[in-house]
Each structure stands twice: as C-alpha cells, then as structure tokens.
Amino acid sequence: MTQETPATLMIRAIPGVGWLAMSAPAPTRQAARVPTLQVRTHAVADPGDLLDLIPANDSVSTWVRRGDGMVAWGEAARIDTAGATRMLDADAWFGRLREGADISDDVDLPGTGLIAFGSFSFDDDAPAGGALIVPRVVVGRRAGHAWITTIDPDGAAPLAIDGDRAPLALPTDVTYSPGAVTPQEWKAKVADAVARIRAGEAAKIVLARDVWATSSSPLDPRALVTRFSHAYPTTWAFAVDGLVGATPEMLIRRERRMVASRVLAGTIRRTGDDERDLAHAAALARSSKDLEEHEFAVESLARALAPFVESANVPEVPSVLHLPNVMHLATDVTAVLQRGADGARPSALRLAAALHPTAAVGGTPTADAVRLVGEIEGMDRGRYAGPVGWIGSEGDGEWCIALRCGALDPADPRRIRLFAGCGIVAASDPGAELDETEAKLEPMRQALLG
Ligand SMILES: C=C(O[C@@H]1C=C(C(=O)O)C=C[C@H]1O)C(=O)O
Prior knowledge:
Elements: E1 8-11, E2 22-24, E3 37-44, E4 60-65, E5 68-73, E6 77-82, H1 86-100, E7 102-105, E8 115-120, E9 130-134, E10 137-142, E11 145-153, E12 175-178, H2 183-198, E13 204-214, H3 221-231, E14 236-240, E15 243-247, E16 250-255, E17 258-269, H4 274-286, H5 288-305, E18 309-313, E19 319-322, E20 326-337, H6 348-355, E21 363-364, H7 366-376, E22 387-392, E23 397-401, E24 405-408, E25 415-424, H8 430-447
Parallel strand pairs: 3-7
Antiparallel strand pairs: 1-2, 1-6, 3-11, 4-5, 4-14, 5-10, 6-9, 8-9, 8-22, 10-11, 12-13, 13-21, 13-25, 14-15, 15-24, 16-17, 16-23, 17-20, 18-20, 19-20, 22-23, 24-25
Helix pairs in contact: 1-6, 2-8, 3-8
C-alpha cells in the first residue's frame, strides 16, 4: 500500500499481429509502443440476449446490467500495469492508442468506437496489478440501440464475428475451502479492528475474507456471468481478465460532462419474506451504526470528487437498495465535470484512480484505515475491491468497485477465489459481520451451483 511503488508497463504482443512487445522496467518508464487500430462501429438489429453471443474464447469481457451493456472477446491490444500509478499509466496508454486509431463510428453512444475493459488491484503494491484490454469484437445495446464494433490491429485479418459458440460449461460438484483465514480467525480480526477503532486508530475499517471454490471441471466465465445477470439484474455483471462478479456499486460513470457514483455502505441480509424485509429496510434506514458507516463513505467520495467538478448533488439521506440477497443504504451522487489545467475533462479511468479506495472498501480516514487493513486482514485482496469497468473513445466509461466477485485461478481453471467484506465500526459485532460476508458471497455461490 505504499505510494512510492514505481510503475512497470508491459505491453503484450498478440500472436499473429506482429507488433513489438516492450517492457519498461521500473524506475525508468518509457512510452510503450502502441499499435495502430482500425475501429469500425455499425448499428445492428437487436441481437437478443448479449450473453448468448460470446464464443468460447480465452479473453472474454462482459459488462451487462438489466440486459443492456456490452460483451466482447479477443484481444487487439493490452497493457498490464502495476504500482501506485497503475490506472494513470493505463489511461495514458489508452489516450495514445486513441490518438493513433482509425475510428469510424455510425452509432456514437457511450461504449461505441474504441473501447477497453479493465480491472485493477485494490492495493498499490499488489502483484495482481492491473490490465486494460482492447477487444477484437464488441456487441452492445443501450436503450434500444444495438451495435457491433470490430477492432483490428494493423495488418491483422478480421476476426470471425460468428465464432465457435461452444455450449456454456456449468460448474460441477463445487467444493469450498477456507482462504487465507478461517471464519473463526476472521471473527478475531473483526474484534481486533473494533478494539482499534475504540482506541481511536480509525473510525471505520473494511475487513474482507476469501474462500476458495473448486469445481470438478473447468469454470466458464460465460456461464457464471449469465447466472449473475439473470439472478441479479440490477447489478453490473462483469467478466474482465478472469475476474467475474455481480457488483451493485458504481465508483464512477462518466458521460461527457456528467458523472455519477453510487455509494453503498450499511447492509442487512434479506430473509426471503417480503414483509419482514420491508420492516428490516425501515430499521436499516434508522440504524445509527449503519447511517454512520454510510456517512463516512459518502463524505469521502464527495471530498475526492470535489477537485474535478464544478457542482455536485449529494443527497442528504440515503435510500435503501434492495438486492435479492441483501439490502444496502445507497446514495447516488451526481456532478458536472470541470476542465482540468490542461483544458481537458478527466477520463472515467482517471477519475476512478482519484477516487479509489473509497471508504466503502478501505475505511475512514482513508490512509489510516488502508494501513490497518494491511495490518489486520492478513490476505492479498488481488483485484477484489479495486476498480473494474471500461473506458471509451471520448474518455467516457463506467468503473464499478469489484465486489460480489471471484478471481479465476490462472494456474487451475477449475478454481476460483471468492471475496466478501464489511465495514467495521465501533458498534460492530464479529458474528454479525461474518454472517454479512456469507450473505455477500451468495451471488457467487449461487452461480457456482452445478
Ligand atoms: C466490501 C463489500 O461491500 C461493501 C461494504 C458494505 C457494508 O459494509 O455495508 C456495503 C457495500 C459495499 O460498499 C463487499 O461486498 O465485499
């Protein structure tokens, strides 16, 4: 979590495309070579369920909510970054890629034209680093308009759009095993965090835990995302670079001058009985423990956003977001971007870099809380709780916080590491927090049913 970690840039050559792989070892950073891309977006008739379109492919990206969004496959270009500037380096690379690209876009909506999908580690110094991937084919739909984008590196033969649509491979006989800490150990960590909060070391510390799931057959990200999008339609069902999940939390969405963020903090489990859940929702909206935890998260977001915007609308009272497994206190912040010193409005990824980590996943005050997470939690979060999303031609994009997710094990396609965490405040109870992590693991566990 140090700020000093020097960035490393690695550009991966795509087989058959023939441009140079370069690396710029820290600390001397060089401009990574960018390929010239031919980008073509055309309107198409409604393609039906987007998730049915993805061929079996090593590189699959999805971003789907309420049936709209984008699915993408193949890699036209990719950057892997690490260190404190991992998002800014990726953003600068994408800017250079855009400058050199030959783009023709008949649709002109957020997400059409050149696009890259990415995910970044929670910690500055995590080995997981980050990646931004420009796919070869994107199919998208937004409010009744559908499109297809093809992205061809210079000299590459176009990728077949009708790839091999191998049937979805469902998980089989999934078994679970503890991650870095057992549930019992994790409760002790929560008690430790509560003691340190009461001693005045921080006001809120977000602690997470991990669980391994192993299927007897290779896991197919397309199958997992399809299940998320059917069971949790109001979340963003994502698959990016082996990280898959159904997150309800929008870190930042940028559409031209407008930005929006959905802050979540304060959680209660659903019971399955609507009447009881309504009573619980009312209790959540009055719970001083949850309201305090929520206020920390809203304040930290508003403070981090302030330098970039000319006006912001921050509702004073949160609403209650109902998901099938849990309910959250939620605040939707909207704002109008201002131009920076360079005359440009910051891109969605630049904003995500400035906002991460929010109090929703780190704690309050941020620097102390993040240090305490590192001391107490006892695991590497990888890309869990980091920004995940996409950036488009004009710097528009959507970056969520990677929650309710799992990281496929690159070394064993049958394994996935699941994560869940909770904001700990002075009034937190370890048993209740453990139960909350179980509720937050439910979308992943349901997607992994055989
Ligand atoms: C950390 C997670 O969720 C975050 C923590 C919340 C809380 O403590 O109430 C609620 C939503 C998220 O901001 C997670 O899902 O893993």
